Amino acid sequence: MPRKPKCPCRYGGCPNLTGSKSGYCEKHEKPMQRYYERFARGYRQHERYGNVWRKIRDRHLAREPLCEMCKEHGRFVAATLVHHIKPLGDGGTHDESNLMSLCISCHEKIHQRKKPS
Q: 99 has which bridge partners?
């Protein structure tokens, strides 16, 4: 039985051909899978953060009710999120020194990352 012809890699600008189900060549398959797992797939918040985190978050927002990044620029915007300066996945903790209060806009700016190449 003849094989299905190879198609171009789905990664923008990549000239390689691939026959994998993902549509990415060997060079881009793993980085794009990591990208998907980290950003596109999402997660269930209650599985990653439990009741302990909610208490820490609420206490931090009560202590720092304004967005810390906006405050540096002279704007006074209510904070709705608590950001880990050093991510938990990289060894960060819930210590007060590793947390900062942010508005949604500033939190999105921090998490703007380029696609892996």
A: 84
Residues 6+ apart with CB under 8 A from 100: 64, 68, 69, 82, 83, 85
When pLDDT is averaged across residues 87-91 and rounded to a whole number, the result is: 83
- The whole-angstrom separation of Cα 1 and Cα 81 is 56
Query: Per-residue pLDDT for 116 more than 60?
Result: no
Q: Is the pTM of this model over 0.70?
A: no
The H helix count followed by the E strand count for the chain is: 5, 4
Rounded distance, CA 103 to CA 69, Å? 8
Q: Yes or no: say if 66 and 76 are a contact pair by the CB < 8 Å rule.
A: yes
